């Protein structure tokens, strides 16, 4: 009895220590999570203020430029006007919009975590969600659909996911159904091709002669080979000079792809050329020595510019002095002519 009682006390003591350790670990994780949320909230406030200030300054510059009948100079591709914005500007605008929504969403989540006892708040738990909330909610819905469909498959003893009714099929069943449908189309087209070959007395029937995925694939390769053969002929007629796929007399898949890539590159080139002009304008307008010469940056730039321009000024002075030393005196006849011209000019002025 004494040994059993001591063993029971030791077991209870061990359980109590384990529970205290788990409680301490949980509190530590919550405290750490709360501190991280506070730091994230501070970072959100800083980023939000910076973005708002930058956008406000940009709006003021655009308003001033419109009042002066000009377009505001810009540095980033997304700040171009709607008529001059290109692929890079549109991509950057969409990315910045997405990032701003993410920052706002994470700021709201950090506020909830910091105001609680360190409880974890998932993006999908927010009342006003954002991009991350939509992504998490979509992922959770897909997993829930897979779980429900697999549970239904086990209950109904269905072997393949696609054999469930369409309402309970789930993502795996829909995926399998699409794959099976594509394979069924290939099987039907190949059966039709074999039947057509038998009807023609064993003549080979190509997949392109029968509707189906393999026929479409063969058609694509046939267009590619035909265009490349014609490009080789064009090269011979062009004295062996290279003919690009988009410049060939017959444009195939490679020519179409190259033409689209070239158009995209030209759009980007025009966009970046226009942006370079605006960057130069912005650098001229925003130079410290032009905006505020009495400021620290203005004085520093003025001194540096003076130091770099001083040698040029000295060389110009030396060249002018050298030119004056090498010059000759005016002859007597030329001096008399100049004097007569000056006298006649004075008389006309007096009259």
Task: Offer a few descriptive terms.
351 residues; mainly alpha; flat
- Work out the helicity level: over 70%
Strand content: under 5%
Low-confidence stretches: none
* Derived structural class: mainly alpha
Mean pLDDT across every amino acid position: 80
Number of strands: 0
Biggest beta sheet attributes: none
Please provide a brief summary of the model.
Helices cover 75% and strands 0% of the residues.
Question: Can you describe this structure?
Answer:
This protein has 351 residues and is an all-alpha fold. The chain is 75% helix and 0% strand. It is built from nine helices and no strands. Helix 1 (2-67) packs across helix 2. It is flat and about 120 Å long. It starts with a helix and ends with a helix. The relative contact order is 0.05. The model has no long low-confidence stretch (mean pLDDT 80).
Question: What is the fold's blueprint, element by element?
Answer:
Layout: H1 2-67, H2 87-115, H3 131-156, H4 170-199, H5 213-237, H6 253-285, H7 288-291, H8 296-326, H9 332-350
Helix pairs in contact: 1-2, 3-4
